[in-house]
Amino acid sequence: MRVDYSPDSLGTAAFYRLLTAVVVPRPIAWVSTLTADGTTANLAPHSFFSVASTDPPVVQFTSVGRKDTLRNVEATREFVVNLAPEPLFEQINLTATDFPSGEGEFDAVGIAREPSLKVKAPRVAASPVALECRLHSTLGIGNSTLVLGEVIHAVVDEEALVDGHPDIHRLRPLARLGRNEWGLLGEIRDLPRVPYRDWPRS
Ligand SMILES: Cc1cc2nc3c(=O)[nH]c(=O)nc-3n(C[C@H](O)[C@H](O)[C@H](O)COP(=O)(O)O)c2cc1C
C-alpha cells in the first residue's frame, strides 16, 4: 500500500511540509550578503541549495518569498555561500530568525566575520568553506526565486583538508530534514562507479 498526495487536495502549506520531509537530506547554504549601502551584513540558512553547473561553476539556492538575502543579492549582485558546520548549529538556527531588514544577523547573533577576497559580502570566519559568488541570474517560480551564482572564488580551511582535499569528517556539514529536524553526518561509505566496460556480460 502507498499513500497518495496531490498538491491540489493537500494545499500549499501541507504539500510544502511533505516535500521538505521527503527531499532529504538537504545541504545548507549559509548565505552572507551585504545591503546596497554596505552598512548591514546579512546571514541566513537556505537548504534549497545545490550545484547548478560545473563549467562555469554555478551554485543555486531558492528564496521562498522575498527576504533580505534575495533583496541584497538583487541589489549588489553578489553573495557568499558558507558551509554550515555542526559546531555552529545553534548560531545557524538563530540566523534564521526574522530580524527586521536593518538588523544584520552577524551583529545580532554575534558571528565573527572576515573579509572575502573577490566580493564585498563578508564570510563567516568560523565556517570551514566559503564560496564567493557573483550573481549569474535569477528565475522567478511562483512564490519563490531561484538564485544562481557563479563561484568566482572558493576558500577552504586548511584544517579541513586531508591530502589537499576537503575531508567530510573535518567539514562536519549539517543537513536540513523535514519539520525542524537537522541531520548530522552519518556513516560514510566509499563505492566507486562501475564503468560500462567492466559491466558483467553473459
Ligand atoms: C536550516 C534552515 C534552512 C532554511 N532554508 C531556507 C530556504 O531554502 N529558503 C528560504 O527562503 N528560507 C529558508 N529558511 C528560512 C530563512 O533562513 C529565514 O526565513 C531567514 O529569516 C531569512 O533571512 P533574511 O530575511 O535575512 O534573508 C531556512 C531556515 C532554516 C533554519
From TrEMBL:
Q: Which residues form the Flavin reductase like domain?
A: 21-176
Sorted alphabetically, which InterPro entries does this protein's record hold? Flavin_Rdtase-like_dom, Split_barrel_FMN-bd
Q: Which domain of life is it from?
A: Bacteria
**Record's keyword terms, sorted:** Flavoprotein, FMN
The answer, when asked if Translocase is one of the entry's keywords, is no
Cofactor(s) the protein requires to work? FMN
Listed GO molecular functions? FMN binding; oxidoreductase activity, acting on the CH-NH group of donors, NAD or NADP as acceptor
Is Flavoprotein tagged as a keyword?
A: yes
The UniProt entry's sequence similarity note says: Belongs to the flavoredoxin family.
Q: What is this protein called?
A: Flavin reductase family protein
Native source species: Streptomyces roseirectus
